[in-house]
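SEVERITY: medium
COMPONENT: batch folding queue
REPORTER: lab tech (J.R.)

DESCRIPTION
The queue accepted two submissions in a row. Attaching both inputs and their returned structure tokens so the on-call engineer can compare them side by side.

ATTACHMENT 1
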Amino acid sequence: MDVLPLPAGERLPGGRSDPDFAFASRGRVLKAYGVDERLDVALDDRSFADGRWEEALDRAFRRRKAQGVENPILVGAVPFDGRQHARLSIPQHYDHEDAGLMAADPDAASLNAAALNAIEETVGRSAFEAAVARAIGLFRDTPLKKVVLSRPLDVEAREAFASGRLLRALLRQNPGAYVFSAPVAYGQTLVGASPELLIRKTGRTVVSNPLAGSAPRSTSAEAERLRTAALLASAKDRTEHRYVVDAVRAALAGHCSRLSVPDAPSVIHTPTMLHLSTELTGELADPTVSSLRLAHALHPTPAVCGTPTGLARDAIARLEGYARNWYSGMVGWMDSRGNGEWALSIRCGLVQGRRLRLYAGAGVVADSTPAAEWEETAAKLTTMLNLFGVGAAQPSNAASNAPSNADVPVGMAS
């Protein structure tokens, strides 16, 4: 990749610069600044069927190359519903930073819970569990096999959130995650620490790492060992995971001359969760197929939607009671050679001013119980709530009881 130096005027005091877009992977943070050209489009089947979208992108890349950039990139986010417009752009400048160095910035410390006005459950427990129960009923009456139901949690601060501060705090707390900050519509910014790689393309090689089947971490080594063993032995979680792996295998098989799929899942650890994980690795039959086309072929996987896809999407629209928009879409980058990485936009939040909407979902299958799925979403929300030292989801206005003399300075204003 090209590294384009920033003009001096775009550096912040002390040499640090907050990017407009950032994406961390495998120890490096891609940082993009400014917009040379915006390519917002609905990335549905029609966009790829006739090749017009990819032709438009190729023309934009050629224009950038004519300006002296050897290998320009595209960055941005795609919503859950591919019929809605994505937020994609070719940046004016980009560079990379070591993720460890960025996380070591003093500004990456946890934020202060005392700076929050309220944490509000937009969808309450009774409503969520009722939706899960209705979904379980659909498994008896329709061909639906799995549906992912999610809920939002609204956080309000006393001052405007700074997305750059959130990004650095997420990097410090989640060093192995795909940490991102991406501007989206209406002045909002999508920030998060996703554990799940949708697709990575490097030359002919593609990698996808679907996750499904989860359990919360424990501070006890013995309890964690037992939870790991239980997760691997869980018929419910193994079934949920198999649906995702089978869908990813089917989507990639048509593009690959060789595809390696492990016989059984392993368990990966994030700071807050245990997940069943299967890493699929393939060799493309046509190396010109772009990472974004592959991502589109995969999205939405049963990890964020369900199976069959159409029935699951319809159930989500009927049962969730709110619009997902950017949650459970994808975020990432691609260069002019089609190489790139796209992660699922989960363990994330949507920032606008003093408000931060968080999201978490759980895969519902026939063996699910409503209470367990609620607890799974609560555990997943801790990835973002840990930014404020709050931990598990609190009732409305619980943050107002946080001590005002917390050790960490507020420093949340932009």
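ATTACHMENT 2
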Amino acid sequence: MKLGYIGLGLMGKSMARNLLKAGYEVTVHNRSRGAVAELVAEGATEARSPKEVAANADIIFLNLPDGPDVELVIFGEGGIIENARAGLLIVDNSTIAPTTTRDLHQRLTEHGMALIDAPVSGGDVGAAAGTLTIMVGATEAQFAKILPAFEAMGKSITLVGEAGAGQIAKVANQMMVAAQMTAMGELMILAQKAGADVSKVVQAIKGGAAQCWALDIKTDRLLAGNREPGFKAYMQAKDLHIVMDTAKEYGVPVPVTATTTQLFDSMLVNGWSDQDNSGVIGVIEKLANEELQTS
């Protein structure tokens, strides 16, 4: 089974690398060439366009910024569709709107192909370690065919439902992740301003009901003064707007997520787009007039 991977950013490069490590033949494409050169040196085959990837792959993985990028790579000039064969599976690891996923899937079925939504969670650490959470929208037969490749990239792999269901799960995931990041920033600044040792407060509450991924992974980085991504703030903000649009479409009130979205939008206004999403603590710092003390 020959694979393709398009979109070798912070997450995609590591995910493609893990497919290579698992022994797959992988053809890779990316707009910037540095990541391509790295993977070619490790055994990948270079493609100069999505169309060229399609000539050499039975399954193509995508990891792109947003829905319009996914559409362009599939249906645009030089896109996958120009060289694709019937039966091709396109596995989208991007986070895009569920409605966009379902629309693209429907268009591809008319060509005898399918779009499988398989967004991921776990950040750069999980991508590098091959321990990502993967949320899949596919038929059972499609899922079974792709599962061995998923197992090279992730640890928790769930078939949520058919097309679009994976993106619905990612909407839910991003609601929780963003809430964790903002609550973490609030509690750290409150603890410090109230005169407590922040690291000891975090240590104490991680042993109880407050334990979560953000406290486990992000607090040490923040206390060390590290706000490098991880997962960039502008991508978190983009995902939150997908959440808000989806909630509006289905008439579901999401007041906590609405406030969290405003905080991440404030990161962008302050010029912190490329910081880690845990850098939302910077907005709390400004509001509280209190900067987190770092070691």
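NOTES FROM REPORTER
The domain at 2-161 is CATH 3.40.50.720 (Rossmann fold).
No errors were logged for either attachment.
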